[in-house]
UniProtKB/TrEMBL annotation:
GO cellular component annotations of the record: mitochondrion
Organism annotation: Tetraselmis chuii
Keyword annotations: ATP-binding, Nucleotide-binding
GO molecular function: ATP binding; ATP hydrolysis activity
ATP-binding listed as a keyword: yes
Similarity annotation: Belongs to the AFG1 ATPase family.
Keyword Transcription regulation: no
PANTHER family linked: AFG1-LIKE ATPASE FAMILY PROTEIN (PTHR12169:SF29), ATPASE N2B (PTHR12169)
Full protein name: Uncharacterized protein
Length: 110
């Protein structure tokens, strides 16, 4: 590879993959909500359907959908080589206690 250091201008000019998301952070009162309201307004004016939810309400909805999905999967009974009957779900979402980082990981496209 090229060991030459690039100037900030050269580094900024290099081709990049399109952004797939933006994460905003900052102290209270720094304009995060205002920026998101402006962004949602611009999308709405452009004809893009927008739903604005507080993060915790959004995650409650995600968990409700995951729970409904989990409940809709029929139990499968499997006999092991030793003759024991084992009940397994065909698909089992993670049921561990969920922390904020795990919530973000669930929303990350795979």
């Amino acid at each position: 590879g090229d060991s030459k250091e690039r100037s900030p201008r050269e580094a900024a000019a290099r081709p990049r993959a399109p952004l797939s998301g933006v994460y905003l952070w900052g102290n209270v009162g720094t304009g995060k909500t205002m920026l998101m309201d402006m962004f949602a307004g611009a999308l709405s004016e452009a004809g893009v359907p927008v739903v604005r939810l507080h993060f915790h309400n959004f995650m409650l909805a995600v968990h409700a959908k995951l729970h409904a999905f989990h409940q809709a999967i029929p139990l499968v009974t499997v006999e092991t080589p030793k003759g024991q009957l084992v009940h397994r779900h065909a698909v089992t979402p993670d049921e561990d206690p969920i922390e904020a980082v795990a919530d973000v990981l669930r929303l990350t496209p795979t």
